[in-house]
Design goal:
Layout: E1 4-10, H1 15-25, E2 35-40, H2 46-59, E3 62-66, H3 70-83, E4 87-89, H4 92-102, H5 112-132, H6 140-144, E5 147-151, H7 157-165, E6 171-175, E7 194-198, H8 201-214, H9 226-243, E8 246-249, H10 255-269
Parallel strand pairs: 1-2, 1-3, 3-4, 5-6, 5-7, 7-8
Helix pairs in contact: 2-3, 5-7, 7-10, 8-9
Length: 271
Amino acid sequence: MKNLTIFIVSDSIGETADLVAKAAASQYRSDLETISMKRFSHVEDESQLNEIAYLAQQQDAVIIYTLVKKTMRAKLKEQCEIQQVFSVDLMGPLFEGLGSFLNESPFEEPGLVRQLDDDYFKKIEAIEFAVKYDDGRDPRGITKADIVLVGISRTSKTPLSQYLAHKGYKVANVPLVPEVDPPIELYSVEAGKCFGLVISPDKLNSIRRERLITLGLKDDANYAQVSRIKHEITHFEKVVEKIGCSVIDVTNRAVEETANIILGEISTRYK
């Protein structure tokens, strides 16, 4: 049985070529331990291709490569022909097919798929964070958050937290109630990362009344009374003044609009 030695050549980390090579090799060798595989990652210089092709010739190896730059693919193909090394270009044919279908040219930037993966996992982590530290469940999240939202009940703290989480930001939100002291962590957070959400008493009265009806309760409960709402807002104003954070009026704003204001301020302060 002929020995199988595979060189994986990539301008990124080479995971794609490695997985494809193992999948293909498993159809010829039931024991993958009998296959010798060597990965050449982050290959970005043509001189490296010369050395790899020569080494493959010496070891009677097969080269499987995922190079996004056309010039690099052409160079490796040329060197493999010179050294009489069998090679497989995994990306080139696909680029040509997609390019023809889309009538566009590829970016030819190594590692873009990994950047997309990192962004995806960052978003998932942020969403899980927002759920864990929603509605002041655990004040420890305040010090870990990228953004902290404070406000009285029904000022869109939770949907806003989720919206910002989908943008990759870890958000903790804290409800303010006059009868309960705010968590001490709230006063240690950097003011520039904290945002107070306020709403007009009449608008909030309408929102809370609808909420009570949805829950099957009478809409004239103290929770929805304008006098109670004004008392909560007064308490809110004292807290945010002590924190020194920005205050955003969400009365006539959609969640997306409020989020854009927050992201604009964040990008200005921490660019």
